[in-house]
Write a structure and sequence with these properties.
- It is a single chain.
- The chain is an all-alpha fold and 194 residues long.
- Helices cover 85% and strands 0% of the residues.
- It has 9 helices and no strands.
- Helix 1 packs across helix 7.
- The longest helix has 33 residues.
- The radius of gyration is 17 Å and the shape is globular.
């Protein structure tokens, strides 16, 4: 019973922090011009990148931050700036990509979904703390389960796009652009407040 609780608590905590459902709207917004296979590829890459980042911080989080002299507040500010620029691109219909090819755009979207949305400062700091509190094996199992569920959710975002249609996604993407700007600003403010 104690073993189940020590596995369940990290899983619930990580799932709530990662909140893959919250990644569906920006994922749909960022991949609205992509084909179905590109969307699936983006979902796969996003979760893979998120997994790599998360596992790195499970095994060496504090050491990495100390070596690079980066604080969690620095990470929040950087992530917030990226979200603000991303939101501005969407709301004002311009691009900072300088005419990169479609593969570069898909790869960039995967990185932006992976971090700061799936593996943001909250998750990274939580992983660092959890490894000190729970057995590392339990944290790894909980993290793996959360990442797997996130993959399923993002890959099924394609069905949401088919159900809603392009016009609703377009309007929704503008609203999401504004929300991304607001979220980015909140990250920046949180980073400065620490």
């Amino acid at each position: 019973m104690v073993e189940l609780i020590s596995l369940f608590i990290p899983f619930i905590t990580l799932f709530i922090i990662m909140d893959p459902f919250a990644s569906i709207p920006p994922f749909l917004m960022l991949t609205r011009n992509c084909k179905e296979e590109e969307m699936k590829s983006t979902a796969n890459k996003a979760v893979l990148i998120a997994a790599v980042i998360a596992f790195i911080f499970v095994f060496g989080g504090m050491e990495i931050l100390k070596i690079l002299s980066i604080t969690l507040s620095d990470f929040k500010i950087a992530g917030g700036m990226v979200l603000v620029l991303l939101g501005l691109e969407n709301v004002l219909n311009f691009t900072l990509s300088n005419g990169h090819n479609k593969k570069d755009v898909v790869d960039s979207v995967a990185v932006l979904i992976a971090t700061p949305l799936l593996t943001g400062p909250g998750l990274i700091s939580s992983l660092i703390i959890m490894v000190q509190t729970f057995a590392i094996g339990n944290v790894l199992i909980a993290l793996s389960a959360t990442l797997f569920i996130s993959l399923i959710i993002l890959r099924n975002a394609i069905r949401v796009k088919k159900i809603l249609g392009d016009k609703i996604i377009f309007v929704f993407s503008k609203i999401m652009g504004l929300l991304l700007i607001a979220l980015g600003i909140s990250y920046i403010r949180a980073g400065w407040a620490i």
